[in-house]
Amino acid sequence: MNVVIDGAGEVGSHLAKMLAREGAKITVIDNDRKRLEGVSAYTDIEAIEGEPASVSALKEASVDEADLFIATYPYVNQEVNMVAAMLAKRMGARKVVARIKDVELLSRGVQPIVEDMGIDLAFCPEKFGADEIVSQLRRGVDSDTLDLAGGKLQIEAYRVGEDSPLLDMTLVDFTKLFSTDNDVAFRVIAVSRGNSSFIPQYDTKFRYGDVVYITIRADELKAMTDFMGVDDIEINKVMIMGGGMVGYLTALSLSKEIQDVKLIELDLDKCETLSGKLPDEVAVVNGDGRNSDFLYEEGIHEYDAFVAVTGNDEVNILACVAAKKFGVRRTVAEVENMEYVRLAEEMGVDCVVNKKSVSANRIFRLTLSENARFVRYMNVIDAEVMEFTAAPDSPVTKAPLRDVDFPRDALVGGIARGDDAFIAVGDTQVLAGDRVVIFTSPQSARKVERIFN
């Protein structure tokens, strides 16, 4: 695949790194040599120094041969990215994507107009980030979850604490608790331990601090959460710290679903602006969310969830840790430095959201065939969760799974067939039309895709 990225800011750089791992040929255009050198330092790209929406730069990048063109120039008006995307489309790029700031362009009534301009996808990282936060809060459970196959299967992440029933238990003993020879309820797909992750073997023993990722049938989820000591959380009150675009969009979305949303913002002028834009259901309070006494005075101990989106990773993480000490059940932190993601989770933050990673995930879907659906890139364990629909006569339908030539770092989690869902085992035979959940390293995603086509 040939990809041209117009703009080497944080989002463009992250996309270049992600797509390069998939084996794509990457060309990056930017007018800042330092940004280009920063991307080139860790990603194999062709760097072109040029202005945004420059026809000569687009020609030099051979945009007419691009399978995907992404206009994500930082620090420019959104019209620049939109013009660049339209030019790329007219010059021959197969699919084009443009980064925007005005979320009204993403509304259902306006999207057809954007598509008529030749732009296949308009995206706003802040909107994607806010949507991910709201999605995580809707789940209302005390662990990280991910719906698959229309909700028939789920991925759950459980941390092994000092009171965890998994502590010092082997994988084989854990499996026996929920499965029989004829009925497998779940599959452990990965374990995150320290600074690494791995696919466990039957004799793997779970240790303190491990994060265990499992694929499980939805009908077995209640039994699993009860075993793990994880409770459902009814979220009726949410406190948000940070009144930037992510905080504003999160508060706006939550106000349509719950009655008690409080937004804390340090800047008084911004507070006045937010008060005029947000509905009455959102209480906008001027104050320093870094001050524990202030948070207590604002009743943080009475809230079900706390969201920190200040734009400062360290502040967001520490604020969530403080919220946990006040008794808040569910915490969400926006973390932009990828190196801090694992640290935040180790410090007890329930959910970490990285808007550039979420944006890259959405854009990556455009690179897949019709039989593939990209679900999520999981930062902590450097893996992708994908759903594939098995095509008629595809290699995966020719033999039982144990005889299919899957990459070593790819694992079949579960299968949805009609109204049924089940966990795959070695002698499972995939049929045409099955929706198959795959857990794979980014490097092997394309190999897996070919098995299903």
Would you write up a description of this structure?
With 453 residues, this protein is of the alpha/beta class. It has helices at residues 10-21, 33-40, 55-60, 78-90, 111-116, 125-139, 171-178, 221-228, 245-254, 268-277, 292-297, 313-325, 338-346, 355-364, 445-452, and strands at 2-6, 25-30, 46-49, 68-71, 95-99, 121-123, 144-148, 153-159, 186-193, 196-198, 211-217, 237-241, 260-265, 282-286, 305-308, 330-334, 351-353, 372-378, 383-389, 410-417, 420-423, 435-440. The protein has four domains: 2-123, NAD(P)-binding Rossmann-like Domain (Rossmann fold, 3-Layer(aba) Sandwich), CATH 3.40.50.720; 139-228, Alpha-Beta Plaits (2-Layer Sandwich), CATH 3.30.70.1450; 237-358, Rossmann fold; 366-452, 2-Layer Sandwich (Alpha-Beta Plaits), CATH 3.30.70. The protein has 15 helices and 22 strands. A six-stranded parallel sheet has the order 3-2-1-4-5-6, with helices on both faces. Strands 14-13-12-15-16-17 form a six-stranded parallel sheet, sandwiched between helices. It has a five-stranded antiparallel sheet with strand order 7-8-11-9-10, with helices on one face. Strand 20 and strand 21 form a beta hairpin.
